Amino acid sequence: MDNNDYRDIFAENLNYYMEQNGVKQIDIAERLGISKSTVSSWCGGVKIPRMDKIEMLADYFGISKSALIEKRNGDIKGYRRPVPIRVAEKFIDDDVLSGTEGYEYVPEEDVSDGGEYVFFRACGDEMYPNIMDGDLVLVRLGGTVRGGEIAAVDEDGASRFRRVVYGEDYVELQPLNPMYPPKRYRDDNAGKARIWGEVRKIIREF
Q: What confidence tens digit (pLDDT) does each residue in 172-195 have?
């Protein structure tokens, strides 16, 4: 197999995953920090990227490197559906997805349990080191959050991420950063805190 064949196979696979996931060339260019013309040359079979860029592409689509560089037979597994990203200034009661800034792609198996998922962008350092300022946090909305798990919460009217701890007659919402105190809510003030859903995944962009 000569270089032209490798370029053609790579281009076919790349275009396939882009089409399946609704990704445009500009999306890849921005994500990898390269020019759109470079991505265009990959899609057109003119050039093939270096292995480090192939690895970045594989991570982006949630697939193996071989899925991009080897000739495929039949359908490709590993399709990823888009999950809306929202900047978490506030979790809105009946319009939680408003203000969507774009889409982040996750493996389909991460969101295949029938639940409603959404990304929120973390602000501040209250959950350091687990959740950092600017991280994208995947939350499964609704359902029961298990004790000891991290959840998206509305606490005293402010949207935050907290570890949830259940007591006999209270719920305690704990920051992970020891510089911030936990807050405990009993039956008489339980309405001041609302648990939106459990954190399932954190994506940190560099």
A: 999 999 999 999 998 766 667 888
